[in-house]
Amino acid sequence: MKEILRTDTVTRSFPVAGGNFLALKGISVVVPEDTLTILKGRSGSGKTTLLNIIGALDAPTSGTVIFDGKDISKASDKERELLRRHEIGYIFQSVALIPVMNAYENVEYALRLADYKGDYRERVMECLKLVGLSKRATHMPQELSGGEQQRVAIARAIAHKPKIIFADEPTGELDSATSLQVIAIFKELIEKEGITFVMTTHDTKLMGYGDVVYEIQDGEIINTEYHGKGEKLHEQAK
Fold first, then answer.
1. pLDDT above 90 (res 173)
2. pLDDT per residue over 44-90, tens digit each?
3. How confident is the model at residue 191 (pLDDT cuts 50, 70, 90)?
4. Domains along the chain?
5. Bridge-based pairing state of the strands 3-16 and 30-32
6. Interaxial angle between packed helices 120-130 and 146-158, expressed in degrees from 0 to 180 and rounded to the nearest 10
7. How far apart (Å, rounded) are the C-alpha atoms in residues 58 and 135?
8. What's 53's DSSP letter?
């Protein structure tokens, strides 16, 4: 089984009145390359805290995080920043498109931040085409539906050709039909772009679409499910 990321007994504690709150309690996960891994859990379960750590937005209190063969657990702020800029993409529940930029400009901005070396226009239009929005390139965010805005956010996240994308509740504000469209886009991008996706969700209807599903409760993994590619990789690993 080829992996792009793994954690080993990761903990994360936060200071609170009277002591520390342990948000993650020895989490160990493996994220296979070119798959969709889902972190499932209710609000407050610890899934977003874990996503922030494996996504190099935060550091663990203890334990290790191995990304693409490198231990990033104790990386400096600068090292994590470079990792985020060049090798990682993010999609959030609140789409956070820049309101004064059209769809094309929002995606192009991601290329500028990453100091992309290729042809900007060619890559932007390629990404918008991948998410089915090549004809909406000049539309402003307020002229797009919620689903279309999320698709622009996906195009923006993949623009600089990251190895992995972390998506925090990307379907949280979408209806069921649009949520399934977003998952279908993820699956297509895994095949066409070779990108690995890790997403958090509490939507039980989406669990079967994940190749690997980790269920988190009170900061611990309580169940792991394998589907599709994940099932095949699980059998190979035995």
1. no
2. 999 999 999 999 999 999 999 999 999 999 899 999 999 999 999 99
3. very high
4. 33-45+76-227 (3.40.50.300)
5. antiparallel
6. 130
7. 37
8. H
